[in-house]
């Protein structure tokens, strides 16, 4: 009896695996992957990079440096927010990301979001600065609904809308 049960479970699993692999084969069978990005903790950061960081973020607390290929990622706290910045080896700031809440948003952005989504609460706000672009990515929640919105150059766009399951 136990042998029959074991056989049935094993056969069912094999059938499921075979069906799954044949459905993957029908999708073209080719999977493209990106080259790996290697991030390592580092204590050796060039003086150019640290000088640029200190100039850009005077009030930064607890910087932790990581080497990311030929660039340097620094994670730190500033203005009660988590921050990430990426520098190239010459000390050029590639991007800066800060993670916050509604209180960290500029008043005009709060007003714009509240006008567009009056029944939603702002749960998180992420500010991305890169290549002279300032982008806010904002998570909103109302009851069972979530909205991911972005604000750039005064333009509010809905990126994604989700509904919570039960």
Question: What's this entry about, in short?
Answer:
The protein is α+β, with helices and mostly antiparallel strands and 166 residues long.
Spatial order of strands in the largest sheet: 1-2-3-4-5-6-7-8-9
Principal-axes geometry comes out as: globular
Q: Which CATH top level class of the largest domain fits?
A: Alpha Beta
User: How much of the residues is beta strand, in percent?
Assistant: 35-45%
Number of helices: 3
Number of domains: 2
Helix content: 25-40%
Termini gap: 40 Å
Q: What can be said about the biggest beta sheet? A: 9 strands, antiparallel
Average predicted confidence as pLDDT = 82
**Low-confidence region ranges:** 1-27
* CATH architecture group name of the largest domain: Roll
Extended strand count: 9
Q: SSE string, helix = H, strand = E?
A: HEHEEEEHEEEE
Structural write-up:
This protein folds into 2 domains: 36-96, Nuclear Transport Factor 2, Chain: A; 101-166, Nuclear Transport Factor 2, Chain: A. The chain is built from 3 helices and 9 strands. It has helices at residues 2-26, 47-56, 107-116, and strands spanning 39-41, 61-68, 71-78, 81-87, 93-100, 121-130, 133-142, 145-152, 155-163. The chain has a 9-stranded antiparallel β-sheet, with helices on one face. It is globular, with a radius of gyration of 24 Å. Mean pLDDT is 82; it is low at 1-27.
Give descriptors for this structure.
3 helices, 166 residues, alpha+beta, nine-stranded antiparallel beta sheet, globular
